[in-house]
Amino acid sequence: MRDREWQPPYPLDLYGVLSPLRRGRGDPTWRTASDGAVIWRVSSTPDGPATVAYRRRAGGPVRATGWGPGAGWEIGRLPSLLGGDDDPSVFVAHHPLVADAVRRMPGLRLGSSGRVWDALLPAVLEQKVTGTEARRSFRELARRFGDPAPGPPDVVPEGMRVPPTPQQVRAIPDWEWHRAGVDHARRSAILHAAVVAHRLEAAAELGGEQGRVLLRRVRGIGVWTAAEIAQRVWGDPDAVSFGDFHIPNTVGHALLGHDLDDAGLLEVLAPYAGQRQRAVRYIESSGFRRPRFGPRFSPRDYRTL
């Protein structure tokens, strides 16, 4: 067991900074205590898997307790994970809604997990499908092919799993991908990435556009997927998920009162160059919800095709 306490030198929303790493309510790599006092997270590290419990009393230090061979690595990165490398002071709001969100949410920071593979697998699963489909696929793959979370069984919540490793993913038979609801295109992208996963971890060290370019060298990883990874792995403040089904219209209605396409999103975010993803995050976290005018997009079940 490893244990560490760290006092953030800035206002911190612990759940808010960690929540982008969660993949839906049934994510087997994440648990939140019923009273919200503890957040459990399972991850892979260069030293092996780790389970870490994060706790914080109001205004006090964050306490991280970890188990597994990777616990030392994971806990050693606690400040970075909680936004210690982030610098929101350079951000300038150019719209009233964004300025209000900045004022109301001083604890919103962009954390960095430091691990590409853990973010890559669920990001590819989310390509061109509904969140319900993607989360179901990740949940099934993790439960069937990921190892049990390290740590005492009487302490670590039951059913938590380590994200499947590149080696484990490459060994999954074709019919199991189908059973998990993953189509050929997403499966191929994941397998291509698994072959060079050790090289892709360098993207976290490069950061910024260079890191995203490295990720896009993998067949099946484009601008959207690279941005989704960059946001979580190195807290990239400019990595906007262009090509997203929801973001252009959410930003458009929040700032202009109407829908946008990607070209319009690029234009409206131009004043935030270098900080465009932070602007999007403030908008998404502000509580604004764009009006809905039609039925929701229905999830497909590739297991029945």
TrEMBL record:
Entry annotated with the keyword DNA repair: yes
Superkingdom of origin organism: Bacteria
GO molecular function per UniProt: alkylated DNA binding; DNA-3-methyladenine glycosylase activity; DNA-7-methylguanine glycosylase activity
Annotated keywords: DNA damage, DNA repair
GO cellular component, one term: protein-DNA complex
InterPro entries assigned to the protein according to its UniProt record, in alphabetical order: Alkylbase_DNA_Glycosylase/TA, DNA_glycosylase
GO terms classed as biological process: base-excision repair, AP site formation; DNA alkylation repair
Protein name (database record): 3-methyl-adenine DNA glycosylase II
Species annotation: Pseudonocardia autotrophica
